[in-house]
């Protein structure tokens, strides 16, 4: 009897595999920006969630100067919403920090998980809404060679949750969507987008934002290797 191939495992990047450190909420808080920051990291976090829900995160931008301007305006809006100072200098300082690849770190469970998935025989891909400088971050953290395919929205012209970016990744992997698990931290962009494209979505909820999420959900990659070996996904209690 021929065994079905193991599913391909596709990952989001930011807040799934890696994060800015300090993360955005701390970066814009008073503790980091001083008097020009927002009152607390939690205020910033809630402001960023609201901006994300409205779809107002910065778009892809290849030109570095335009990218800096866009992120400065984004951070200035976040500071205002969080009750902080309406400070262009503070927002510019935060934007310069956020756009420096050296200021990103991997979550500690990422490399062991990717290596274990690879050793088990899974195809791996990364699908991210990001500018091309994501490749600098991936290279700095020895991630590039761990993926069979890397698909970045700014390079292919489609952003998640549009189905085209998921379909393109499947074609490159030569796998049907039903053979793919997609792991990301956004309910709309990652979970809904992957499901609508015919994949098996899995929410990675590292900061316990969505404890009542009705679908498959994990808070770390410690259980991921065993979980994705079989489709459809089914979560044991200890994986929640």
Automatic annotation (TrEMBL):
Gene3D superfamilies found in the cross-reference section: 1.20.120.1600, HAD superfamily/HAD-like
InterPro entries hit by this protein: HAD-like_hydrolase_domain, HAD-like_sf, HAD-SF_hydro_IA, HAD_sf
NCBIfam families, per database record: HAD-SF-IA-v1 (TIGR01549), HAD-SF-IA-v3 (TIGR01509)
Protein name: Haloacid dehalogenase
Lineage of the organism: Bacteria, Bacillati, Actinomycetota, Actinomycetes, Kitasatosporales
